[in-house]
Design goal:
By secondary structure, this protein is an alpha/beta fold. The protein has one domain (about 5-255): NAD(P)-binding Rossmann-like Domain (Rossmann fold). The chain is about 40% helix and about 15% strand. It has helices spanning about 15-25, 40-55, 70-85, 120-140, 165-185, 205-210, 215-225, 230-240; strands at about 5-10, 30-35, 60-65, 90-95, 150-155, 195-200, 255. Helix 2 (about 40-55) links the parallel strand 2 (about 30-35) and strand 3 (about 60-65). Helix 1 (about 15-25) packs across helix 8 (about 230-240) and helix 4 runs parallel beside helix 5 (about 165-185). The radius of gyration is 19 Å and the shape is globular. The chain starts with 5 loop residues before the first strand and ends in a 14-residue tail after the last strand.
Length: about 270
Amino acid sequence: MANSNEYVLVLGASSGFGRSSAIALAREGYHIFGVHLDRAAGLKQVEEMRQQLSDLGVRHHFYNVNAADPARRAELMEEMKSEMSKHSDSRIKMMLHSLAFGTLKQFVSQEGAEVITQKNLEMTLDVMANTLVYYTQDLVTNGLMKDGGRIVGLTSAGATRVLPMYGAVSAAKAAMESYCRQLALELAPFRITVNAIRAGVTNTPALSKIPGSDVIMANAHMRNPYHRLTTPEDVAKVLTLLVKDEAEWINGVVLGVDGGEDSVDLTWWKP
């Protein structure tokens, strides 16, 4: 079990990878700080997760705010510091960046379709990539994450591939991977590791918003050696390994958690 005063900060905690990872890490004994942005319809699942965490006997604090807002981020840091000050030797052991909010538009107009704007591009990059840097800076400078900490960002095969209307998100994923490598270098003296997890195609709310998601899932099902999609629980299991002290030598890499989907080419095979 984890140290009784170790926390995990999950950005994008209410559904998909964030939700499953928070629950899996709570089972390992970690307390949870969760950041999410939901209206009334989405709050029910947050309350259900809070009940699960209570049943597991861990402390949990959720913040329904825009994680990319600098003012809200500053407030969040102060609230976490206040909470952790109540418990001696508290620290954040892991931060999971699972924010998935971006613009899906073409770069160049085709047949009158709406094209992406500067504001759209900057927002997508800021939410899905830049916030990894900002939250890491704040955690380290505020002393909330110390030796043995883990920073993990979620990326996808889309970082190196093209899909209709996916350009801004693809660029953000590529930036995320680059940021993880740079932070891995700069945080090595602090003994804080930084890695990205490249999850396979997963049926999440974020995927459902991508045009042609049904085709994407069908192709992934065919390509994957296991002939199934990745699940949020698959990723959560790997996080419970990465958080361990024994994983300290895994640093600055993109870990494929996809059952071989992106590594084994089955597209040539016709049953």
